[in-house]
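[step 3/7] inverse_fold.run input=structure_tokens len=201
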């Protein structure tokens, strides 16, 4: 059975969807721990409520990037993590971690990548940009993580219409509902071997 680590920064609603799908047996995996760079993240509360180890892990506790990176690798190895799921994680995952877990790190993004991805495109900023561009549709994407922001191969994508008069908040709410549906599906595909990362040149 695969062991997941879920990295979060905020409220953890996608984490809750993952927990629910693991608990129901839909995803044949266990969650080894939940990690957040934010000590007051609600995601950590959600983890504790379900008796999942909740870890506050921040670069401020380490003397430099190399020590931070090594500590993260050690943590992942100690918990025998197979797959890392980024669920609203606002920090860049260290390069050595991405290389060690290539094809085993997933991220969810609130837009139809490659549109509206990259640095600065997160949270409400994405939805505001979609509306400003007068797009007719948006959506959510689960993709494999590479060393570039939002640049990895897509695993699952689902569209959401942009309705006349939509605010960024209204669009965000509809996209989030889709995120909760497609992230467990993407994890299931990877865990079951139905999706794997293509070799990158």
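[step 3/7] decode complete -> sequence:
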């Amino acid at each position: 059975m695969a062991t997941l680590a879920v990295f979060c920064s905020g409220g953890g609603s996608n984490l809750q969807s993952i927990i629910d799908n693991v608990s129901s047996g839909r995803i044949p995996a266990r969650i080894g721990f939940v990690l957040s760079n934010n000590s007051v993240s609600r995601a950590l509360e959600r983890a504790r409520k379900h008796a999942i180890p909740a870890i506050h892990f921040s670069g401020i506790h380490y003397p430099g990037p190399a020590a931070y990176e090594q500590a993260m690798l050690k943590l992942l190895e100690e918990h025998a993590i197979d797959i890392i799921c980024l669920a609203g994680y606002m920090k860049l995952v260290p390069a050595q971690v991405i290389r060690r877990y290539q094809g085993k790190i997933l991220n969810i993004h609130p837009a139809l990548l490659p549109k509206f991805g990259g640095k600065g495109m997160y949270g409400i900023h994405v939805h505001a940009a979609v509306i400003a561009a007068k797009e007719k549709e948006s959506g959510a994407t689960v993709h494999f993580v590479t060393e570039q922001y939002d640049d990895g191969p897509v695993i699952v994508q689902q569209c959401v219409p942009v309705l006349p008069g939509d605010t960024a908040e209204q669009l965000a709410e509809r996209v989030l509902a889709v995120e909760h549906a497609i992230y467990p599906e993407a994890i299931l595909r990877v865990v079951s071997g139905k999706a794997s990362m293509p070799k990158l040149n």
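[step 4/7] annotate
The chain has two domains: 1-101, 108-181+193-197.
Helices lie at 13-23, 42-49, 65-78, 95-100, 124-132, 168-191.
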